[in-house]
């Protein structure tokens, strides 16, 4: 095998973008999204990000040698928190292959993210170095007719404008200066080679990487990811409301994509039982509409999001079923109607309506085929019970013990809880400091049932439980939730400067 083939095999082991699809990228952001971001997040990034001071920047050390690497660019908020964008760079040919973001991080969280990408060795770099590597790769790819990943149109706002004000640094791209396509399979070859040949001629060099060279661990991990198979019930096709104007109010187009606090207050002036009835009817009707209308014909709105937030105020135990229906939907539903803040927006309603129905919440966790990141809201809400009412901690620990036992038993009988969901559950157990559950955690790690990019051995969990400081709590106040989703506060109810 030639030296370049060896390099390309290294490329293959890096190229599955799984590192960017893990728990850290998805729990409070999310993540793994090819569709639009929430309008609030988009507006904040496009209008505010370039006003923030440049923060820490990093670049993987062998980005030019192996042809693939990560560049990370940070922006510092006045509060001291840091938002980052990450760019997966193919320096041999394709430019920006993928990109994403993470908002409002603490410094130690950035270190955690760097450690998560264990396939890459990082070095700090100047912003100018990061800028020239990213835009240099973009311009090189464009010479071959290749445009950057579609998310770059938004992620570029983490970067300064590409003009003469940025000092030029000359990086070498390609193989000996020429485009060299390392296609992971024939599908990718057929996608890019015609574009390259049209722009550069027929003599474009390429190699098809043997998919068998993928790490067996990654293959096994991916095989265990669940598909959405939940059977949707027959949601109502008509809605009967006590106050029809409630739906009209929620369906309006609002600045920042969500009704303001004054609108919510006006709605909450209604008798709460009547408002609760109408909100539940609206939610179920909208869920049915989502499944009846082709996705391409649907328009993003905030009706369900606003209704769920209001249920955190007026909902009762009978509202739990309606809230849970919001967690039964496929991923595209959240892309259209919830956005990036699944936990922040739904957890408070789930907590208030389900805190005395732990048995029902356990039954939900055992339902197969649901979207893992929506399902992760449930253990987050149960964790909150122990935080808000410490005298119930033992009850919460027992709930998580039953859940871990189910995960272990499920795997031993041919089924499998998605590893990324197990990783999220372990994260909640760490926050709970449930040392009582370490034996079950040990079994889960030994059997490789959790997201292996997050926890590699039991010592990680034990040490994190020891080191875990008292964390800021996600807000339960509907007014703070509104301001969070409108970009005015963070998830903990703190004003964004």
Give a description of the structure:
- Helix content is 48%, strand content 10%.
- By secondary structure, it is an alpha+beta fold.
- It has a domain at 3-220.
- β6 (180-183), α7 (186-200) and β7 (205-208) form a beta-alpha-beta unit.
- α19 (393-412) packs parallel to α21.
- The longest helix has 21 residues, at 272-292.
- 43% of the residues are buried.
- Mean pLDDT is 82; it is low at 1-37 and 211-223.
Give a short synopsis of this structure.
It comes from Segatella salivae F0493. The chain is an alpha+beta fold.
- What's the mean pLDDT score? 82
Care to count the β-strands?
7
Q: Pairing-aware structural class of the strands and helices?
A: alpha+beta
Strand content: 5-15%
Give me the oligomer status: single chain
How would a textbook summarize the main sheet? 5 strands, antiparallel
Count of separate DSSP helical elements: 23
Q: Taking strands numbered 1, 2, ... along the chain, how are they ordered across the largest sheet?
A: 4-3-2-1-5
* Measured distance between first and last alpha carbons: 55 Å
Question: Could you spell the SSE succession in H and E letters?
Answer: HHHEEEEHEHHEHEHHHHHHHHHHHHHHHH
Low-confidence stretches: 1-37, 211-223
User: Which word captures the global form?
Assistant: globular
Instruction: Name the helicity range.
Output: 40-55%
Radius of gyration (CA) equals: 24 Å
Keywords:
alpha+beta; five-stranded antiparallel sheet; two-stranded parallel ribbon; 23 helices; 7 strands; 48% helix; 10% strand; disordered N terminus; PF06685 family protein
């Amino acid at each position: 095998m030639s030296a370049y083939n060896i390099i390309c095999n290294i490329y293959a082991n890096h190229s599955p973008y799984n590192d960017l699809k893990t728990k850290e990228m998805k729990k409070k952001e999310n993540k793994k999204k090819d569709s639009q971001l929430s309008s609030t997040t988009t507006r904040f990034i496009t209008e505010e990000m370039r006003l923030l001071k440049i923060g820490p920047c990093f670049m993987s050390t062998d980005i030019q040698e192996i042809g693939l690497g990560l560049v990370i660019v940070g922006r510092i908020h006045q509060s001291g928190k840091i938002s980052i964008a990450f760019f997966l760079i193919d320096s041999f040919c394709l430019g920006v292959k993928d990109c994403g973001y993470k908002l409002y991080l603490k410094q130690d969280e950035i270190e955690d993210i760097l450690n998560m990408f264990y396939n890459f060795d990082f070095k700090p770099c100047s912003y100018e170095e990061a800028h020239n590597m990213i835009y240099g790769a973009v311009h090189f790819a464009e010479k071959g007719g290749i445009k950057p990943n579609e998310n770059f149109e938004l992620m570029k706002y983490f970067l300064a404008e590409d003009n003469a004000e940025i000092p030029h640094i000359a990086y070498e791209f390609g193989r000996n200066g020429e485009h060299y396509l390392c296609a992971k399979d024939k599908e990718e070859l057929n996608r890019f080679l015609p574009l390259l040949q049209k722009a550069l001629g027929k003599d474009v060099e390429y190699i098809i990487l043997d998919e068998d060279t993928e790490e067996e661990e990654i293959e096994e991990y991916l095989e265990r990811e669940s598909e959405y198979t939940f059977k949707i019930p027959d949601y109502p096709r008509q809605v009967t409301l006590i106050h029809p104007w409630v739906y009209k109010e929620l369906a309006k187009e609002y600045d920042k994509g969500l009704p303001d606090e004054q609108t919510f207050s006006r709605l909450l002036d209604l008798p709460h039982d009547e408002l609760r009835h109408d909100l539940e009817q609206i939610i179920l009707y909208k869920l049915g509409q989502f499944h009846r209308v082709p996705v391409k014909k649907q328009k993003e709105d905030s009706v369900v999001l606003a209704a769920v937030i209001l249920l955190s105020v007026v909902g009762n135990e009978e509202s739990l079923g309606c809230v849970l229906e919001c967690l039964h939907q496929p991923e595209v539903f959240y892309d259209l109607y919830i956005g990036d803040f699944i936990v922040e927006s739904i957890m408070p309603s789930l907590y208030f309506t389900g805190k005395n129905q732990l048995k029902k919440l356990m039954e939900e966790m055992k339902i197969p085929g649901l979207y893992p990141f929506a399902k992760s809201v449930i253990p987050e809400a149960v964790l909150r019970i122990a935080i808000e009412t410490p005298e119930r901690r033992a009850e919460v620990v027992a709930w998580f013990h039953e859940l871990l036992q189910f995960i272990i038993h499920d795997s031993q009988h041919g089924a499998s809880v998605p590893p990324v969901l197990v990783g999220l559950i372990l994260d909640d157990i760490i926050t709970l400091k449930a040392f009582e559950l370490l034996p079950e955690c040990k079994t889960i790690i030994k059997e490789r049932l959790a997201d292996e990019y997050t926890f590699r051995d039991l010592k990680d969990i034990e040490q994190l439980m020891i080191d875990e400081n008292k964390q800021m709590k996600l807000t339960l106040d509907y007014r703070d939730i509104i301001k969070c989703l409108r970009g005015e506060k963070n998830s903990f109810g703190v004003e964004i400067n």
